[in-house]
Every structure is written in C-alpha cells, then in structure tokens.
C-alpha cells in the first residue's frame, strides 16, 4: 500500500506504524512545533491543520492523512518568512508565557479566521470561550490570548538605554510563534533509547522478588533496571541550595514501595512500545504492608511507620511517628491574649492536593558528548528542570562523578510552578545511560504527572484569633498539619514557610504555632507556587474576615488596624529571620486599591435577577526570596560584532526572567535589548545558579546580571579612555558605540582595541548575588460574586488585584504573571482536586477528570501596581511570580460569605459544595445574611 502526505509543502511517503497518531508521525520527522500535552485531545497543544481543518493530532490516526495536506505552526508563515497575521498579533500582544500551548492557539485561531465569511463560519471567533474549548493555557489567564486574537498590541519598540520599565517583548517571541523554539524533547538524538517505568500497584509493600526474564525477551528491550541495579544511597528529590533542608528518604529504585505509583523498575528499549511491553512482562512478588493515608492517624501511636528503618542521618524529625519535620513556637502568652480578648473566632480549614499541570511533562534525555578539553566523554542531561546546577550536583553525588563529568542543560521549559524544582527523572535516566553508554530518554505521560510526580501539599489548619472590641488583635494561635505524602521532598520547608509571613503580616502581642509535616502512603507533595503560604493564608484571611463580621467592623478597617507597618520587623513564632526586611512598603496602596474598587464598583458583569451578591478581599505578604541563601552568577561580555552576551544560569519557563535580564543589561549598557543575547540554564555557561524558584529570577539572578552589566559599563568606559586618550568621564556609552568627547568609537572597534592593548579582561565582567538580605512583597485581591441560591452556581462579576512589585521592570510581562497566578489560584479555589481513593491511589489522572481552568472559566482581572521602589531588589524591583496566587482563595471565600452568610472552610469551593451548604442553611432555618442584587452590604436595603 502506497502512502503519501504533504507537510508544510514537503512530501513524505513513509508509512505510519500501526496505530500511530499524527502527532508522533510529525515529530519523528522534525516538526517539533507539534507538542505533546495530554495525548487525550484535552489540551490542544498538538493542533495542526489537515486540509485546512484544525485537528488534535494526538487523536488523529496518521494513516488518515494519506493524500492530504498537513500544516503545522512551522508552515503558517509565508515561504519568504513573513509571519502569518495571527502569528504577528500573538507576538505584538505577547499572547503567551512559557509558549508550550501557543502553537495550538495559533493553529486554532488561524483556521477559524480562514473560515470568516465562508459557509463554514459559525461565529466562533466572536465567541472565544466556544472557540477555545479545546485549548488549555496554564500560564496566562487567557487575557493575553484574547488580546492577541483581537489585535491589541502591548509590546513597545526598543529605545536605547531605556529598556527597564517598558513593555519589551520576550526575546524568544519570534521563535515561539513560529515553532522554532526548542523545549526539552525538541532535539534529534541519534541512537536514542526509550525508558518506561513499572510502578507499584500497592500503597505499601516490600518487594521480595523481581523476575525480569520475560521482559528481556521482548524484541527491542535492551535492559531492565531494578533496586538491585541502583545505588543504595539515600537522597531527596527536592532541589535546594542546601540539601540538608530536606530529609534523605529516597532511593533511585527501592525494595520498599510507599505509594501507589512509585517506580519499581525501569525498562529501556529501542521504542516506547517495546519498553511498555517490557514493563507488562516483569513479574514482581510483593509482601503487602499496613498503610495509612490520613496524616492525623499517621502520627498516632501504632500507625505503620513509612520510614521507621531510617536513622538520624536521614534527617527525619521523628521517623517512628511519621513526622518528617515539625516546628513549635510562641511569642508572649496566647492564653493570656485570649483572656484579654472581647471576641474570639476559632475554626478549622482544609486545602486539597493540586497538580501543577504544566503542559510540558517531566522528562529528560541523557547522552554522552566529548569534553571540551578532549580528555574523554561526559554525561549530558537535557531536562525540563528549574534547577540545572542543583541537579548536576545531585547526580554527581549519587553516582560518584566529578563535576566536569556532568553537564545539565534545560531548553525552554514548558511550565514549572515549582513542580520542576525536583529530580524526578534525571536520576534513573542517568543510571541507564551510564550503564549502557547510550542515549536514553524518559518522558512522563500526562497520567504519570498525576501519580508519579508531585502535588501541592494538602493542609489542615486549626486557627484561633482574639481581638478587643476596637478590632486590635490580642492573640493568634495555629495548629497546622501538612500531608507530605510518601516522601519528604520539600515537606519540612513548605511547612516552615507556611507559618512565616502568614503570621508576620499581622501584629499581635501573643502568637503560637504548632506545625507538622507528616508522611502518609500517598503520592508525594512538593514545591508549588506560594510554597505553603497559600494554604495558611486561606485560613488566616478567612478568620480575619469572620472576626470583622463578629465585631461589626469593615473587614478592610480591621486589616488596616493590625497589619505590619513600614517600620516594623516581621515577627513570627517560628523565630525572627534576621535578613528579612521591609525594604519598601506597598501594602497600604494595595488596600487603597481594594477600597477604591469597592467604593466605585460600577464595572464588571451584572448579576442575574434573584441571585445573591457579595464582595470580599484578602491580602498576603511574601519574602522576595528563599531563606538561607540563593546564589546566582552572571557574566556579561562585549562580542566581536559589538553586541553583548549575557551568561546566566536561571531557566526560562514563562517566568519572564530572560526578558528582564535583557532589559537590565540594555539599561546598564545604554543599548537596546535586540543587541543583547542571553545564554542560560546550562551548567556550562556560568559557575553556579541555585535555580529558578522562590521568585528569584529577578531579585537574585537579575541582581547578579545588574552587577555584571554595571561593572562592564565601567570597564568599557575605562578601555575607551585608554584607547582614545580622552578623559574617562567624557566617554559615554551608546547603543552601538562610545562617544569619547565627540569622537565616536564603534563597539566593534573597542573590542578590537581591547585585544590590541592586551586588555581582553576589560571586555567582560562578572556579577554574583547571594540572595541576602531579602525584602517582602504584598498583594491584595478583591472579588464581587453572584450566587444562584437554587443551583449553587457562582459567577465572578469583577476581579481586582493589587500588587506591590516595587519598580515594575516590564509592566506587560508582570501583569501577565499576576493574571496567570490569579487564574491558577482560581482553579485551585473552584474545582482542581487531585482525588485519592481509600488506598491513596490517584483517581483523577487525566485533564478531563481533573478539570483545569479553561478560557470560559477565567474572569478578566484588573491589575494595579503600587508605586514603590525597593531598597534591596535590582533597580528597586521585587518578585512577583508566586505571590499573586496567595490571597485569591480567601478573597473568593470571603465574597461567598458576604453573599450567602455561610463561612466555607474547605477547598475547592465547587458548585455542589456551595449548593449543599445553601440547602443545609434552608433546612436548618438559619436566616443567613446573604444579600441580593440591588441591596447594600450589611443593611439589606435596595440601592437608590
């Protein structure tokens, strides 16, 4: 049977394999713009055109493309390279962040535009929620996508020396919209082998025997690795600058499994199909052990100890009691504080597991390449990671390799949100590559992301707050239990961080905390946007709102009376962090934004007749970097062509650090961003970088870049003076040259002069920043919502967010970070929930069962930035990647409380949960104080 199709006007006649989908057929032929996000038709990242019709290529059988014309994102532009109008609009609006989903949105939009005015035009472009029901974006919050479709331009043209504070487009933008940008697996590696993992069907068991003989007989299987082949070394999958922050409780492959989904064996074959069949042929004999899935039960005497076999070297707080870490502290005397209170509010709040759901799944490919000095080979690991340098360090320690024997590099990363601050694939892939001396690839499926990666920590927070009649807080006490799952990666650190700034943002003379991070037989939790603060902030801000209701006070007035001030030191019962300062203060402005939104609320959607209407707000404070040191090195160099090269270690995954680093460099060197090239996320380019987490891309790596660029500017002026004989103070850097007292010296000439004068060292400069001291950032969120009392449906009528980001380096980009954070937090607030059965097995291991926010689910958020300049951050900037997430859930819950009179204490706030609470309220005959559209807050009187 003959087969043929045209892809982007090129003919291909290779017959697809039996059952092969069009996505893999295209990628195997180098069309890497076609992405794998779900392989189930849920996310749209694989969208291509077949004879002009948009299809999800992961579901489309390749054989059906016989005789057809296929267009991928690479073929959307004209043959001469001129961008398609849709590509140009996405570039101008910067309708993307990480960009992994962008090809899908481009192809969908282009197809619908082509239908305009034809018999096939059904008006989808006028109804974008319907048009994009098959496309998911995890990063943007969709407003930027809408602006791109509508032709709204946000990017500005470059201006020499004035890059900072402008809407400079992302350097990778042209490659993102044309499909040229390279993510982890968008490379061709000759001789590549594929790995698949056999995973445990039991929540807790000891492996007594593994028979791999049948697996090794499968055609194409090259090797099978079990715990007998792996090092016995204990480590943590979490990546921190200081490895001692996490318990060493993990092995590459263990003879004890502690949750359903834990890896048991790794099969390596010449195809994914052969590796999968090999996994099915492995025979494992298990001795099942008792298990526990509830953290409270796990701490009780007699509960099965998950890591009871480990000693003090593992740094587990109390292994026999399943306590990975704990903290207890008190300021003053809380019992005395409650005795002094006129009103006391006490409640318990619960938050659920949430998946990061980055569209690029975890994975890596390892291969060998010659060392630069020609002394042999080294292992190179190309990984979807936020921490290349820390991963290299861990691999070297695990396998006894010298640092120059391992290189770790990240391409563009398709979303992270903390989930890729882990070593989940590199360890086992390196094991296979080192043994076989061949390239090996492991790419997680979407299902594996749910049961084989990590989640946000579920929390239970018991909180008690006391206040005097005038609203002054007298005491705050919290009891926090965090479920870290089967392993303690990030467990103690998340627990510790959760009760830091959440306590410190409010002044009270008496504070007490007891917190535990607890092992259970469930999928491990890990780092997630907010790093524990979002969970505890939900409780704190909900109780503050409830306290205001009990006192009969305006909730904003209560907050203003008790929040930390610009001259205060942050105090928490876990102990004072000496390097944490309020180096700029924008919380008052954040609360003013909320007050103005409430006072002048005329915007947003109107509520349907008969629906209950309410409004609510919440605030949050976050440190602008992790404690204990977060390090970054940078090097800025003048190149022979008169442009600049920036080498920095931090990874780009839609966080926008590449753009900011380019802007900082351009500003310091009085040039334009298009004359600055960034080399990043590669252990070859600089000495060290802790990683792109903890919102450190701007305030740590950016600070290192600023120091390097500023130093280079001074060196170039000195060199220009030496070259021309003109006084140094008369040498002024420009975009492409130096003005030396009226004489123009091109930067290319200056480069040549540096070599001629033996001053090569003056052509580059290094910068280093250690992440300390640190400042704090503030955020506030406000919602107006409407609730259908008959169905429990809730609509967000208006959403306003105020962000204290210091000097905003790129308003367009920072606005996108805030919008994306709010959208992701709304997903966690409304419906996202990694559900487990009674054995701890994940039952929501697909997007269609998990429910991510889609275009129709996300309201547009009005973003306001305060006018502050930080004394610590580079050029006055503060971090703003994590913090917008934290106040969203309590603000929404407070709006629900205002509308219905019901205090909701458990996330997610699903429609059925709201309906059940309203039904119970009616059955109990409780009056509630919810108000309907047209009534004033608190008095029930019609407006007007």
Describe this structure in words.
The protein is α+β, with helices and mostly antiparallel strands and 944 residues long. It is built from 25 helices and 32 strands. It has a seven-stranded mixed beta sheet with strand order 8-10-6-17-14-15-16, with helices on both faces. Strands 2-1-5-3-4 form a five-stranded mixed beta sheet, covered by helices on one side. Strands 12-20-19-18-13 form a five-stranded mixed beta sheet. It is globular. Residues 931-944 have low confidence and may be disordered.
Summary keywords:
944 residues; alpha+beta; seven-stranded mixed β-sheet; five-stranded mixed β-sheet; 32 strands; 21% strand; disordered C terminus
Estimated share of beta-strand residues: 15-25%
Number of strands: 32
Shape: globular
- Provide the residue-averaged pLDDT: 95
Separate helix tally = 25
Structural class: alpha+beta
């Amino acid at each position: 049977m003959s087969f043929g199709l045209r892809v982007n006007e090129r003919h291909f006649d290779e017959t697809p394999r039996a059952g092969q989908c069009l996505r893999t057929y295209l990628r195997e032929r180098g069309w890497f713009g076609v992405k794998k996000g779900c392989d189930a038709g849920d996310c749209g990242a694989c969208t291509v055109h077949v004879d002009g019709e948009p299809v999800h290529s992961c579901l489309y059988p390749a054989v059906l493309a016989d005789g057809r014309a296929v267009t991928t994102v690479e073929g959307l532009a004209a043959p001469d390279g001129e961008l398609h109008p849709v590509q140009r609009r996405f570039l101008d609006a910067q309708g993307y962040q990480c960009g992994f989903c962008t090809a899908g949105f481009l192809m969908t939009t282009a197809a619908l535009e082509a239908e305009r005015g034809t018999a096939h035009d059904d008006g989808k472009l006028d109804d974008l929620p319907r048009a994009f029901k098959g496309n998911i974006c995890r990063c943007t919050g969709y407003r930027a996508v809408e602006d791109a479709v509508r032709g709204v331009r946000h990017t500005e043209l470059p201006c020499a020396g004035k890059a900072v504070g402008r809407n400079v487009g992302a350097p990778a933008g042209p490659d993102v919209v044309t499909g040229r940008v390279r993510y982890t697996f968008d490379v061709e590696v000759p001789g590549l082998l594929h790995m698949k993992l056999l995973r445990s069907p039991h929540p807790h068991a000891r492996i007594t025997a593994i028979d791999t003989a049948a697996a090794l007989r499968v055609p194409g299987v090259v090797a099978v690795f079990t715990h007998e082949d792996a090092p016995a070394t204990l480590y943590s999958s979490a990546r921190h600058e200081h490895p001692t922050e996490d318990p060493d409780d993990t092995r590459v492959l263990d003879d004890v499994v502690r949750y359903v989904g834990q890896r048991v064996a790794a099969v390596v074959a010449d195809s994914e199909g052969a590796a999968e069949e090999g996994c099915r042929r492995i025979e494992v004999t298990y001795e099942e052990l008792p298990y526990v899935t509830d953290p409270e039960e796990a701490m009780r005497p007699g509960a099965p100890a998950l890591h009871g076999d480990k000693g003090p070297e593992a740094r587990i707080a109390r292994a026999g009691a399943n306590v990975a870490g704990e903290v207890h502290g008190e300021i003053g005397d809380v019992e005395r504080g409650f005795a002094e209170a006129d009103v006391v509010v006490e409640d318990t709040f619960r938050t659920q597991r949430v998946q990061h759901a980055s569209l690029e799944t975890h994975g890596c490919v390892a291969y060998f390449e010659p060392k630069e000095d020609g002394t042999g080979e080294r292992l190179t690991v190309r990984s979807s990671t936020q921490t290349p340098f820390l991963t290299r360090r861990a691999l070297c320690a695990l396998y006894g390799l010298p640092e120059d024997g391992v290189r770790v590099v990240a391409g563009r990363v398709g979303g992270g949100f903390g989930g890729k601050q882990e070593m989940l694939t590199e360890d086992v892939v390196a094991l296979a590559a080192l043994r076989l001396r061949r390239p090996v690839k492991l790419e997680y499926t979407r299902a594996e992301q749910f049961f084989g990666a990590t989640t946000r920590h579920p929390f239970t927070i018991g909180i008690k707050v006391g206040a005097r009649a005038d609203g002054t807080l007298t005491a705050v006490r919290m009891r926090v239990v965090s479920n870290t799952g089967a392993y303690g990666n990030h467990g103690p650190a998340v627990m510790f961080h959760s009760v830091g700034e959440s306590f410190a943002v409010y002044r009270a003379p008496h504070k007490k905390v007891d917190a535990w991070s607890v092992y259970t037989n469930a999928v491990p939790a890990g780092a997630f946007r907010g790093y524990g603060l979002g969970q505890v902030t939900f409780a704190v801000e909900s109780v503050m709102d409830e306290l205001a209701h009990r006192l009969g006070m305006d909730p904003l007035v209560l907050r203003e009376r008790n929040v930390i001030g610009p001259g205060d030191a942050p105090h928490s019962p876990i102990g004072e962090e000496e390097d944490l300062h309020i180096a700029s203060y924008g919380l008052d402005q954040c609360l003013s934004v909320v007050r103005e939104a409430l006072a002048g609320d005329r915007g947003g959607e109107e509520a349907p007749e008969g629906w209950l209407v309410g409004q609510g707000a919440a605030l949050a404070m976050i440190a602008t970097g992790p404690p204990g040191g977060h390090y970054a090195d940078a090097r800025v160099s003048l190149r022979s062509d008169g442009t600049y090269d920036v080498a920095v270690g931090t990874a780009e995954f839609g966080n926008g650090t590449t753009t900011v680093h380019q802007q900082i460099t351009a500003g310091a060197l009085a040039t334009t961003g298009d004359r600055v090239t960034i080399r990043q996320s590669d252990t070859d380019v600089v000495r060290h970088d802790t990683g792109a987490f903890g919102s450190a891309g701007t305030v740590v790596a950016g600070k290192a870049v600023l120091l390097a660029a500023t130093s280079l500017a001074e060196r170039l002026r000195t060199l220009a003076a030496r070259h021309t004989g003109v006084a140094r103070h008369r040498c002024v850097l420009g975009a492409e040259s130096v003005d030396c007292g009226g004489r123009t010296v091109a930067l290319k000439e200056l480069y040549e002069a540096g070599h001629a004068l033996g001053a090569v060292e003056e052509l580059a400069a290094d910068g280093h920043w250690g992440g300390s001291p640190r400042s704090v950032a503030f955020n506030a969120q406000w919602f107006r919502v409407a609730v259908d009392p008959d169905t429990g449906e809730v609509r967000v009528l208006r959403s306003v967010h105020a962000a204290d980001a210091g000097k905003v380096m790129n308003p367009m980009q920072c606005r996108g970070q805030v919008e994306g954070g709010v959208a992701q937090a709304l997903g966690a607030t409304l419906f996202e929930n990694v559900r487990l059965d009674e054995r701890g097995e994940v039952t929501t291991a697909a997007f269609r069962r998990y429910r991510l926010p889609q275009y129709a689910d996300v309201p547009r958020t009005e973003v306001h930035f305060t006018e502050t300049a930080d004394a610590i951050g580079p050029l006055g900037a503060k971090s703003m990647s994590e913090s917008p997430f934290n106040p969203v859930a309590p603000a929404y819950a407070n709006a629900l409380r205002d509308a219905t009179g019901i205090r909701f204490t458990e996330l997610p706030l699903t429609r059925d949960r709201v309906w059940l609470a309203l039904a119970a309220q009616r059955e109990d005959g409780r009056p509630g104080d919810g108000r309907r559209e047209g009534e004033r807050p608190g008095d029930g009187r019609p407006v007007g």
